[in-house]
């Protein structure tokens, strides 16, 4: 049961259900928590928050009778879109090619936001998340307009931008998987932030063990394995009052069989958020270029991960992941029975094994053909193999030009 009070009435022991004003303007971006100490009370008041909704069933009520309740509406239930909340405003659907244009701009601005956040951490300055949170909401809106455009684009990483774009790609994947799993909007938003900051601890470690092209020595491996805990410390010092980014940051290298690091947690010791983080981080790492690793095709990464379900990765979350990015993710190159190469350009929700593809290359003739859009549900064509586009002389960027014009 919610009561609306003035922020100066706030006391330790009250459960804050919502803070007045846009959430972005105050440090308590996860605006649901038990007020644990006077410091938090002072922070809310000094952040200029005028009014607070408290849940009197979960925490302390205001003393009656000399502290009247402020009349006024209580917030809308969480399941309805909140006009104050940019992440939950419904977005009109967009075509793939239209959304790719917007997602490209978003990636550019995101690179600047993440770059300055990372630079602050390297300089030992406190983590500033407001820009990151705006980015999470922009990613969220892009995924609402088109479920695949941002995910496909975020896989393409120019040399030198890998770290920023890995953070952004994992952010987008985590938002998308969180939605597929039906998690509440506030959790999905936290997952997005978790994606942006999950590897932030690497910024405080020496470069060599973290970005080494060859195999790490045991000492280097020991240093590398500190990055989840180092990230946890940075986030803890930023005092976000939010558990999900902390949890994902410290546990994204844990594995369900207990053979991960830093703590070797297993099974139910790992939260669903940590399991989502592990899968999204692994997928983006496998499909990205980094020192000593050529990017794998999405299909190869999916195959690799699928055989490691129940040892490295959680089965339920992986299932949601495949529903999110598709068994044949956008941009996957397939060989068809007619001996043509085709690139996946849209999923068929009802029949994920038969996506829409764009045929573009004749194998027997060793040359490109005029493109042809084929819906594998309604065609005699079938998939006979995965192909590596690079072996046929196509970059991911060229493939995108083929499939982005096809939706
Ligand atoms: Fe990591």
Describe this structure in words.
With 407 residues, this protein is of the alpha+beta class. It folds into 3 domains: 2-55, no CATH class; 96-325, Hypothetical protein af1432 (Orthogonal Bundle), CATH 1.10.3210; 333-404, no CATH class. The chain has 14 helices and 9 strands. It has a 5-stranded antiparallel beta sheet, covered by helices on one side. It is globular and about 80 Å long. Fe (ii) ion is lined by residues 199, 227, 252-253.
Please give a quick description of this structure.
This protein is α+β, with helices and mostly antiparallel strands and 407 residues long. Helix content is 41%, strand content 12%.
CATH level-four homologous superfamily name of the largest domain: Hypothetical protein af1432
Query: Strand portion, in percent?
Result: 5-15%
Structural class: alpha+beta
| Corresponding CATH architecture of the largest domain | Orthogonal Bundle
Q: What sort of overall outline do the alpha carbons produce when their principal axes are compared?
A: globular
Biased composition (Pro residues): 65-84
InterPro entries: DUF3391, HD/PDEase_dom, HD_GYP_dom
Protein name: Response regulator RpfG
Domain HD-GYP: 141-337
């Amino acid at each position: 049961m919610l009561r609306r009070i003035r922020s100066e009435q706030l006391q330790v022991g009250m459960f804050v259900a919502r803070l007045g004003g846009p959430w972005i303007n105050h440090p308590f971006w996860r605006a649901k928590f038990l007020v644990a100490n006077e410091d938090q009370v002072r922070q809310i008041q000094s952040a200029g928050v005028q009014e607070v909704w408290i849940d009197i069933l979960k925490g302390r009520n205001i003393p009656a009778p000399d502290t009247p309740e402020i009349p006024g509406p209580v917030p809308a239930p969480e399941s309805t879109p909140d006009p104050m909340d940019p992440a939950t405003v419904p977005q009109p659907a967009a075509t793939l090619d239209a959304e790719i244009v917007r997602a490209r701009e978003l990636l550019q601005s995101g690179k600047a936001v993440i770059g300055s956040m990372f630079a602050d951490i390297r300089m030992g300055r406190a983590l500033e998340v407001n820009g990151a949170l705006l980015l999470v909401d922009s990613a969220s809106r892009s995924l609402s307009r088109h479920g695949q455009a941002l995910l496909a684009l975020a896989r393409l990483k120019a040399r030198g931008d890998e770290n920023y774009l890995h953070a952004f790609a994992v952010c987008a994947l985590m938002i998308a998987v969180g939605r597929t799993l039906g998690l509440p909007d506030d959790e999905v938003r936290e997952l997005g932030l978790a994606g942006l900051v999950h590897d932030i601890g690497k910024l405080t470690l020496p470069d060599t063990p973290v970005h080494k092209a060859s195999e790490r020595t045991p000492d280097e491996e020991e240093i590398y394995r500190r990055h989840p805990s180092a990230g946890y410390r940075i986030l803890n010092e930023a005092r976000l009052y939010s558990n999900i980014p902390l949890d994902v940051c410290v546990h994204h290298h844990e594995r369900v069989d207990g053979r991960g690091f830093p703590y070797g947690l297993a099974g139910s010791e790992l939260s669903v958020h940590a399991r989502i983080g592990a899968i999204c981080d692994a997928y983006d790492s496998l499909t990205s270029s980094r020192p000593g690793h050529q990017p794998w095709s999405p299909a190869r990464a999916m195959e690799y991960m699928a055989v490691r379900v129940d040892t490295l990765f959680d089965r339920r979350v992986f299932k949601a992941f495949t529903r999110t990015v598709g068994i044949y993710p956008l941009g996957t190159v397939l060989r068809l029975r007619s001996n043509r190469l085709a690139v996946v350009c849209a999923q068929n929700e009802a029949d994920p094994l038969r996506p829409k593809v764009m045929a573009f290359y004749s194998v027997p003739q060793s040359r490109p053909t005029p493109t042809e859009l084929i819906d594998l549900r309604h065609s005699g064509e079938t998939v006979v193999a995965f192909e590596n586009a690079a072996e046929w002389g196509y970059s991911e960027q060229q493939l995108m030009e083929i499939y982005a014009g096809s939706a």
